[in-house]
Amino acid sequence: MQYDTAVIGAGLAGLHTARLLSLRGLRVVLIDRKRSLADGIHTTGIFVRKTWEDFPLPEEQLGRPIRDVTLYSPARRPMHLTAARDEFRIGRMSWIYLYLLEQCARTGVHFMPNTRFVEARERSILVHRGTRCEEIGVRYVVGADGARSRVARAYGLDVNRELLTGIEDVVPGRAAKPELRCYLDPRLAPGYIAWIADDGDEAHIGVAGYRERFDPLSALARFRNSIGEASAHRIERRGGLIPVGGMLRRIANERALLIGDACGSVSPLTAGGLDPAIRLSSFAADVVAAWLDTGDRDALRQYSGDLFRARFVSRSWMRRIIRTIESPMLMELACACLRMMPGIAAHVFFARGSVLGPVDRGRLVRTFVRTS
Ligand SMILES: Cc1cc2nc3c(=O)[nH]c(=O)nc-3n(C[C@H](O)[C@H](O)[C@H](O)COP(=O)(O)OP(=O)(O)OC[C@H]3O[C@@H](n4cnc5c(N)ncnc54)[C@H](O)[C@@H]3O)c2cc1C
To answer: For position 372, what pLDDT does the model report?
Structure first.
C-alpha cells in the first residue's frame, strides 16, 4: 500500500496531526513502536486551561480542576497562589490517547502499532514490525517520535540537545481540594522542580532535572520520604526526557517535518509540552497538505523554527538562570525574592499565553491549500 503521509509516533502530536491530515483527504499511516497506546505513558498529563478551552479533549478524561498552587523553597518555605479560575487538569492519558486513536480511525487513518521506524529510503521508509522488516511507500514523513527523534536524524533535521530527565509515581489521590505543589530544590531536582499534583483521585509525585547532575530514582525516593509519602501505594511509574532547549530551527524539508517534542516545542521554563504539541498540529497539517498538493517550497519554508523562536527567548533566558542555580542557598534567596514579587510567579503559572503564540495559518491556507 502506498501512503501520502506516514506519521511516526502516536503521542498527542502524532495523533492530532494524523487525524487532520486524513480529514484533508490524504492517505495516512500512523506508526508507533508501542503495542498499545495505553501502555508506557511518560507524562504527568497536566493540561493548562487554554488547551481544554481551544481543543476538543474528552471532558470525562480530565480530572477535577486545580486552582491552588504552592511553591516551596529548599527550606520548605511555602508561597501560596490561588487562581481566580480553573487553571490545570490532570488528563487520564491512556484514555485520552485511545480516544484520539478512535477519532483517527473514524477519519480513515491506518494505525500500525508495535512498529518501529528505522530508516528513510528514497520514496519509502523501513520499519520493524514485530520481528519483521517492512518497506512502506510514502510521499512524506511527519516525525512525531518524541524528544530523541529518529526521524529528525534520518532526514537531516535538527535534533534536541538540552534535555531534562523526569520520573514520577502515580499514587491514589488524597487532596480534598485539588492542588499542585512545586518544590524548587537543586538537591532533588537540579534545573527543574519536584512536584505533587493531586486532584483527589490520583496524585503524581515526581522529580525532574539535568541527567548529569542527579540520579532520578534516588532523588524520587528521597523526595517521597521527605514529604511523608514513602509508603503510598504506587499505581504506576512514569518517566522520560523533556527537551528544554527551545524550538529547533530546521524542522522541515522536502521529505519530512517535525512536530511536538521532536521539534523542541516545549516551554523551556515550565517544561510543558502538551499544549504546544496539539497547537502546532493544525499548522503542520496545513503545510504538509499544501506541499503535497502544490509542490511549492514556500509552503515548507513557512514551517521554520524561526517563526516561533521569539516566543522562546525570555523563557530560554529564565531557563539559563535556573540552570546556573546549583546551590540550595542561592535557590533559597531566589525564592525569597519571588515571595516579594508574587505577581511574577502567578504570571508563570496562570498566564494564558502559549509558548507558540498565534500562527498566521490564514496566509498559508489562502496561498496554497486548495479549497474544495
Ligand atoms: C515525566 C514527564 C512529565 C511531564 N509532564 C507534563 C505535564 O504535566 N504537562 C505538559 O504539558 N507536559 C508534560 N511533559 C511534557 C509532555 O509530556 C510532552 O511534551 C508531550 O507528551 C509530547 O508529545 P509528543 O506527541 O510530541 O511526543 P510523545 O508523547 O513522546 O510521543 C512520541 C511517540 O513516538 C513513539 N516513537 C518514538 N520513537 C519511535 C520510532 N522509532 N518508531 C515508532 N514510534 C516511535 C513513542 O512510542 C511515542 O508514542 C512531561 C514530560 C515528562 C517526561
So the answer is: 29
